[in-house]
Amino acid sequence: MELLLVIAIVLGVLAYVHYNKIVSAYNRVQRAWSDVLTYQRQKIKVLDVLEPQVAGFQDYESQLLEKIVGLRSAITSLPSVADGEALKSVDRGTKALLGGLNLAFEAYPELKSAELMNNLMREVAEQEGNVSGAITLFNLNVEHFNNSIQLFPGSLVNRLTLKKSLVTPFSDSQASAGFEYKPNF
Known about the structure:
Strand content: under 5%
Pfam families: LemA
GO cellular component, one term: membrane
CATH topology: de novo design (two linked rop proteins)
Number of helices: 7
Largest sheet: none
Protein name: LemA family protein
CATH class: Mainly Alpha
Keywords: Membrane, Transmembrane, Transmembrane helix
Order of helices and strands: HHHHHHH
Organism: Pseudomonas protegens
Structural class: mainly alpha
CATH architecture: Up-down Bundle
Shape: elongated
């Protein structure tokens, strides 16, 4: 009888520990996703300043203004719940915007003289670097969380109590297509 009580206590403690690990990992994923959203929304502030500047050069590059407006819309529509898939359109929009700015500066050298435009372009690139770092942390937290609900005994604890689903990490299919090496998994 005492042995059963000890086994029950040990199992209860194990379940308690794994329950807390899963909850903690899930909360880290949500916090990391919030960081991604924060950096994406900081880009909106830069875009708000950049938009009227580009509008002034609309004769030179009308598509650039559309890209800025589209990127702002994509950022504001990101879900508050962690979702790496939803981030793909924002990532593509940022790359298109940066490419458009570079093309505009190369095609129209007189734009290079505008110090404000140069500073804003640097700020957009810096914000993109911040987003990249936040995505890396997000994906690490997603991996940790997904492992915690897939590996035994966490999988059992999750199935019986929390019923959390796997979180989709962010992946960039365009970037990975540029690599010759393909892992064999």
